[in-house]
Amino acid sequence: MITNMIGVIIRKELRAALVSPKFVASFGVCALLMLLSTFVGIREFQASREQYEAAQRLNEQEMREQTAWGRLGTRVFRAPDPLQIFASGLQNDIGRWSSVDAFNPVKLKNSVYSDDPVFAVFRFIDLAFIVQIVLTLMALVYTYDAVNGERESGTLQLTFANPVPRHVYILGKAVGAWLALIVPLFVPLLMSLGLLSVFDILLSAEHWLRIAIMMGASLALVSVFIMSGVLVSALTSRSSVSFLVCLVGWVVTALLIPRAGMMTAGYLVAVPTAAETDSRLDGFSKERWNVHMKELGERWRARNEQLTGKTEEERRAEREAKEWDWMEEDDRSRKQVQRDIDEYATRLREDVRNRKLEQERLGFTLARFSPVAAFQLALMNLAGTDMGMKARFEDALTEYRKTFNTYRDAKVKESGTFGGIRISFDSQRGMKIEQGREETLDLAEMPRFSDPRVPLRDAFSAALVDIGLLVGAALLACAAAVAAFLRYDVR
Amino acid sequence: MLTLIIEKEIRDLVSTARFAVTFGICSLLILLTFYVGARTYALQTEQYEAARKEQLRQLEGVTDWSSVRSARVFLPPQPLAALVTGISNDIGRNAEVRGRGEANPQDSRYAEDPIYAVFRFLDLDFLFQILLSLFAILFGYDAVCGEKERGTLRLTFAQAVPRSTYILGKLVGSFVALGIPLIVPLLIGCAILPMLGVPLSAEEWLRLAFIVASGLLFFGVFLNCSILVSALTHRSSNAFLAMLVVWIMAIIVVPRTAVVIAGRAVDVPTVDELASKKSRYSAQLFAEDRMAMGKFVPSNPTGPQVMQEFNKFMSKIADERQKKMDEFSSRLNEERVNMQRIQEDLAFGIARISPVASLSLGLADLANSGLDLKEEFQSSIQRYQRSYGEFMVKKTGMNPGGGMIMRITDDSDREKPKPIDPSELPVFVFQPETLSASLASALPDLGLLAALATVLFLAATMAFLRYDVR
């Protein structure tokens, strides 16, 4: 009996919704924007993939032209991921590449927006943005008069002239509104996913699974706003008031809380800037190199002192005999300096990262008071364009740098020359310039960098809290709407 | 009669709960935006000063200017850029200057602090775009058709009221009733800036006045548009839906799509392509110089001046190499900049179909946080690079830049050298765009907004002249 009654209410709600101009407008706009955002995302992904491949090619070519192992360095580029089509997150804000060599610590540079600020002016459009801004607004427009609108038109009183349980009615209303908005959206959604095949975007099974979870999170967010609209409608007796409340609520949750949360965290937890950190690292590095150079000078003085009192031939013979050992000793000392600098950089970075983590934790906790923020964070985690992206890449690059430098050092040793220029000056022999040996480098065995990927399980665990929050908020709003309607004056 | 209609409109709007709530929220957000802008500016200034101090600190104890390999320069925070962020958080904020070669800005705020990039900043541009436009729609969508639904329109026109006077009264009344109250929080916001430690020069006050005026102009555009739509429809629900669609198109679709279209239509050489070409050319030049270096013959091979002579020789070949490199780089950069300009012109040309784009571009120009900011910072860096290079030549006899690091190990016993005085280093001065230049850039956009507001006003009048009031 109750099931039948709910069915009738849902069917009535669906019929009323589907023939309304509100449905036509909201469905049309949502469909257009979903398709447009996917299309734009695909084109952007293709462009960034082309740019990535071209940059890789050029780097390979440059490396093939290098002639000394000692100077060998490379550039590592961040590969684009197709999931950025749906949630670009921080993809365009984080640097795209880092140089990897013996002397400089890794650092991601040249973000898309800093290279081409024209794209930063209005930003890109992605599905996550459409869901956050447009679908949530449409959900409220759709439901703000679900109850009080019926009351104003007098149909609510008529309905309750029959023995209709209130909870059945409100559940039917909520489910009807949900179905009327969500089900039609599957059409543009499926078409959007179809665009991926049309444009030959290859996706793995894991990608599809992630997309499915992302869509689930989108449904949860829209559900929160649908249920909130019904709740507000059941709490007010005039649709104009509920509309205003919904609009204010939307502005606060979709636009204000996320920004305010992050900014509050920014003010409360101070993090040193990159310039400050770099300057500190530069300072340490300079100091360390100065000590090294001083020690180097003392070493050479001691070496020369050992040769005093010997004939020119004896000195030359001894120098030649010991030259390799001396070079190795100097190289060890140089590597120790580099290690010290690297360790200091790691410590410095670790300290900054810990402070940033603290800032993020606070910022995200505050921002999560808004379901829109929770949704955004969930999608970024699932798409791998989250806050951890930069640290993830820089950690992987640091590891790669170690492997790369080990390979390079082995090759330098193998070739017997560093490849640099050595200029020596002696008050008796004058100046001597020695050019290192130049050769064609065989890079076939060079270690390659592989992009760090967050396993699905980890990404899902990270997103689970936010998805749980969304589902919880939707259920809570639904329960609150039922509770509010039980005491609603239907006259 | 016009005054009477205006007065009635103002009374009708101001006395509603809708006005109280919306105005309260708008005022709160406007004040919050100013507060947040002031705090952000204070934080950025603190970080800027800390970075500069750290830069000078690391030069303490250095005894030879030759060991100062580079200097780092920082983009000073601009007070108005904290209120209208534009692209100021997307471009690099510091650069390493070596005396020669290219010095590019790096470390954008969003790249270094992605936490702010997730949801972006709350600024006046965002507030005007989203909030003022919604505010205008909320009060304008039922201006005509709402009166018709309530039956008051029919009653009004039972009297001898000229239609043109009525719609003019509606438009002026709505603007005065909603626009004037908005000025109050905006003025309070401006007034609290100095109290929150944001020093503004007379020129910046003038810029701020233009920014506030632009916001009101934009509000006028959306208000007129809403009244036009209201005069074209007979049911307020339809008018609201139509305006919502317009709002979404104007704010989300048109500006973003325009940039994407331009991005695809104009092929700009990528930074990576340029970097690769430059790197290869540099390697080629360096290989040539290595050969030249091997042929260096000092005038007196064992004399004490040999290293100085060698330094001069190295400096000379580095200068020549850099000259070639600069010519090559500037040719490549010019090609890219030209293509970027074409791309920008196309993108913004299309985007300006939406008043939101005009507002955004105009505000960024006025706040000095638009696309020109990157070029200005870059030019200031290049100027500083020259003066830094000259300074180093004066101090050490050679320009240290150019990529070659020469470490001289001296094993002779000399007296302990004295530390250098870091304050002698030339001071980096960032020269932002002048007010007249900013106005010249912003005026076309503000003109567009004014023209659009006028056209919409005329269209609303025309539509109402043929409106069925029954």
Q: Could you walk me through the main structural features you see in this protein, from its secondary elements to its overall organization?
A:
The complex is a heterodimer of chains A (491) and B (470). Chain A has one domain. In chain A, a hairpin with a 3-residue loop joins strand 3 and strand 4. In chain A, helix 10 packs antiparallel against helix 12. With 491 residues, chain A is mainly alpha-helical. Chain A is 72% helix and 4% strand. Chain A has a two-stranded antiparallel ribbon. Chain A has a two-stranded antiparallel sheet with strand order 3-4. Chain B is an all-alpha fold and 470 residues long. A 3-stranded antiparallel beta sheet of chain B has the order 1-2-3, with helices on both faces. In chain B, 70% of the residues lie in helices and 3% in strands. In chain B, strand 2 and strand 3 form a beta hairpin. The mean pLDDT of chain B is 87. The longest helix of chain B is centred in the C-terminal third of the chain and has 46 residues. Chain B has one domain. Chains A and B meet through helix 2, helix 3, helix 4, helix 5 and helix 10 of A and helix 2, strand 2, strand 3, helix 4 and helix 5 of B.
